[in-house]
């Protein structure tokens, strides 16, 4: 397993081009199952999670071709059972359930296991499928769906921790070919849900209201192929902006949608940084001392849970007391123990971390545990004295395209070592 050595102290400056969105590409690739015609999807990042999804689609019978960032998928004849050994590797595999049910009226996919950021139930997905007329059985660790017909209905996506992104995606994909109108209430409003709706509408679907909490889907007879480009990755962009905040130069993220970054730009401004935006870029630069923050995650347009760990890595150096609460994934604090090993002063009582910024971190061997916690450790290493050794770096490669190379191009000193 590779590991990464981060030599702390270098200043970062310059411009980095942000890749296409992982969390947009994954459901969009699955949605290509909804037509027999070829779909061409551009701006797909080179990530292991994308590789897993393409392998699952191939195992379902899709013809899959990939040429750098462009993927072509033709789902002429498909199977409806996704293999456990592939599905268990990635939670997002669950988003093949909706298109398989929508097109074939049946599906069999293993239940996603829990993961380090918390248990990952899909009760809201299954409630949505049942509302459309599917029989839902959980048997032998698999979810089995069957419907003689799918009929439009009103579905509510709210759970104890707010709405669900992939749950909203799954119900949209199950509803686009159903008979009649489906109303989704308390739908997720993330830009990635809007991107999926735009992709499906480019295939002939009739979805309105995407980006709000109330979606309307008018079922159509069939969908046709399309050629579509996914949106830029707002979480990669946010992660790079925090790298700029931590390592102190003037850093620009290019090829982004600034309107998707408002909930990240706000806290960085409140923490004392200067940020300016143009049509497709955002630039961060230092503007005095880093100030402590009180942050609370919530579904879009709130502060994203996927940026919580990265902000903790910034706040460990902000003199004063910061309070970070994760309302979406209350257990998502695997980064705290590792940051503490580097000298951070953090008191954790889930779902809240109280950080006493002390300005100093020292490099240490640390363990990556999940995608965003691993990114936080990398960011912490940028500001630490000495070398930070991050093991199990495959976690980072799941969601960041060549992040070590991108940071080195900005002035970091990061080595990837074959372990
Ligand atoms: C998506 O996961 C993202 N993944 C996650 O990003 C992101 O953290 C999450 O949305 C929240 O924004 C992809 O898009 C591939 P949820 P998803 O269903 O859809 C509870 C990353 O780092 N819930 O919105 O699986 C759930 O336990 C990943 O890129 C239920 O209770 O998340 C959580 O507390 C990590 N029942 C909350 O809702 C359900 O049926 C939000 O989960 C579904 C979810």
Give an overview in words.
The protein is of the alpha+beta class and 419 residues long. It has 2 domains: 2-18 and 232-418, Enolpyruvate transferase domain (UDP-n-acetylglucosamine1-carboxyvinyl-transferase, Chain, Alpha-beta prism), CATH 3.65.10; 22-229, UDP-n-acetylglucosamine1-carboxyvinyl-transferase, Chain (Alpha-beta prism). The chain has 14 helices and 23 strands. The strands form 6 sheets. The chain has a 4-stranded mixed sheet with strand order 21-22-1-23, covered by helices on one side. The chain has a 4-stranded mixed sheet with strand order 2-14-16-15, covered by helices on one side. A 4-stranded mixed sheet has the order 4-5-3-13, covered by helices on one side. The protein starts with a strand and ends with a strand. The relative contact order is 0.16.
> Mind telling me the CATH superfamily name of the largest domain?
Enolpyruvate transferase domain
Q: What is the class of the largest domain in the CATH system?
A: Alpha Beta
Summarize the amount of helix as a percent range: 25-40%
Name the ligand types: ligand EPZ
pLDDT averaged residue by residue: 95
| Rg measurement, Å | 21 Å
Shape: globular
Strand order of the largest sheet: 21-22-1-23
Strand content: 25-35%
Query: In DSSP terms, counting alpha (H) and pi (I) runs of 4 or more, how many helices?
Result: 14
The biggest beta sheet is recorded as:
4 strands, mixed
Show unreliable segments.
none
């Amino acid at each position: 397993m590779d590991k990464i050595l981060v030599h702390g102290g270098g200043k970062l400056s310059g411009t980095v081009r942000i890749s296409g969105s992982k969390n947009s590409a994954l459901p969009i690739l699955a949605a290509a199952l909804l037509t027999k015609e070829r779909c061409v999807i551009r701006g797909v990042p080179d990530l292991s999670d994308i590789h897993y999804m393409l392998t699952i689609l191939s195992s379902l019978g899709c013809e899959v071709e990939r040429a750098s960032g462009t993927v072509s998928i033709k789902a002429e004849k498909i199977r409806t059972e996704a293999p456990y050994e592939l599905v268990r590797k990635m939670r997002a595999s669950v988003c093949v359930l909706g298109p398989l049910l929508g097109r074939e009226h049946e599906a069999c996919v293993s239940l996603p296991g829990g993961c380090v950021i918390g248990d990952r139930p899909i009760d809201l997905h299954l409630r949505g499928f049942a509302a459309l007329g599917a029989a839902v059985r959980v048997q032998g660790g698999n979810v089995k769906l069957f419907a003689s017909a799918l009929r439009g209905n009103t579905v509510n996506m709210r759970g104890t921790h707010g709405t669900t992104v992939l749950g909203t995606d799954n119900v949209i994909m199950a509803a686009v070919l159903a008979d009649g109108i489906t109303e989704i209430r308390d739908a997720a409003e993330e830009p990635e849900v809007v991107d999926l709706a735009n992709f499906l509408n480019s295939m002939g679907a009739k979805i309105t209201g995407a980006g709000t909490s109330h979606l309307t889907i008018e079922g159509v007879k069939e969908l046709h192929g399309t050629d579509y480009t996914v949106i830029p990755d707002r979480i990669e962009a946010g992660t790079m902006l925090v790298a700029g905040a931590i390592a102190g130069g003037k850093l620009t993220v290019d090829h982004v949608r600034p309107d998707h970054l408002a909930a990240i730009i706000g806290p960085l401004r409140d923490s004392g940084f200067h940020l300016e935006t143009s049509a497709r870029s955002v630039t961060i630069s230092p503007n005095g001392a880093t100030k402590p923050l009180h942050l609370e995650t919530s579904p879009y347009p709130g502060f994203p849970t996927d940026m919580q760990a990265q902000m903790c890595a910034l706040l460990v150096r902000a003199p004063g007391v910061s309070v970070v609460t994760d309302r979406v994934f209350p257990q998502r604090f695997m980064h705290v123990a590792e940051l503490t090993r580097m000298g951070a002063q953090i008191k954790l009582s889930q779902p809240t971390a109280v950080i006493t910024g002390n300005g100093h971190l020292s490099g240490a061997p640390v363990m990556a545990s999940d995608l965003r916690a691993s990114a936080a450790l990398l960011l912490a290493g940028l500001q630490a004295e000495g070398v930070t050794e991050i093991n199990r770096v495959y976690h980072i490669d799941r969601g960041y395209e060549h992040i070590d190379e991108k940071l080195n191009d900005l002035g970091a000193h990061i080595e990837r070592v074959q372990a």
